[in-house]
Amino acid sequence: MTLLSNVVRGDAVLQQGPAASVHRHAELATIRLPYRPESVGAARSFVRAKLREWGLDDLVDDAVVIVSELVTNAVRTGCQTRMLVGVRRPTDHTVRILVGDGSRSMPVMVQARPDATSGRGLAMVHRLTRGRWGVTPLPFGKVVHADLTTPAANPR
Question: What share of the chain has pLDDT > 90, as a percent?
Answer without folding.
Answer: 56
